[in-house]
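Now for today's protein.

===
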Amino acid sequence: MEPARFGPFLKNARQEAGLTQAQLAERLHVTTAAVSKWERGKCLPDVTKLDDIAAALDMSVLEVLRCERQRQSEAPREALAVVYTETVRASRAQHRRAWTAACVCVTAVLLAALALHWFPVYRIARVWQPSYYDTGEVSLLAYIGSPEDRRAARTVLAKAELAFSELGLGREEAQEKYGALSRYVICADSYPTAVSERHTLKLWSARFYGSDGLMWVWYSQEGMDTDGNTVTGSWDIPALWSLEKTLDGTWEVTHIKEHP
């Protein structure tokens, strides 16, 4: 039993029985869409439905399997067994094809997701400013960096998190404590009414070469007063950090480049 042959046979048999697709679907406890797919030769019904189909169309299971009416009142058992075996084989092949197609689709999606994780080139469009960032700086966003680079970057991010969270320091104190990262401190002499803050800081890309390094980060930050009103803030900002390795082997941000 092949889908291309079974479809027209089922449609003719249904019409001869005076049934609509919806009525046949109701008798078989399936959807009308399923019956439609069978009749269009898109797929075969499950073998467990053959008895129900035969009963609904007033024919034998062998007639359903052979996709033709039989003149004999009772078909030979041997013929029924042969056709039934062929139908089971065709149904299993159909299921294998569907399973293979599903596996291919899932694999393709996973590979695409993995590729976008390591090579998020879509971020380039978010920072591309030909008059501000050069091609080499922007190209760093095409690759998030090696696991070793990203591990080194995490120690820098930990210090940056402290700078973002700091409140109450003056500008000189912040500069002494955090260096270039002091630009992210909500200083008391600039925003005396800020008593709380919230921020998001994410690493986009990291690359370290000998004693030099570069990191692309993305952040949002705002400081609030006692009433919860925003007194200062920056949102969805990509920033390029330049780093140098100090004598004790740690990395320090020496310059921050953000589009004004």
About this structure: The two ends are 70 Å apart (CA to CA). The chain has two domains: 3-106, 137-257.
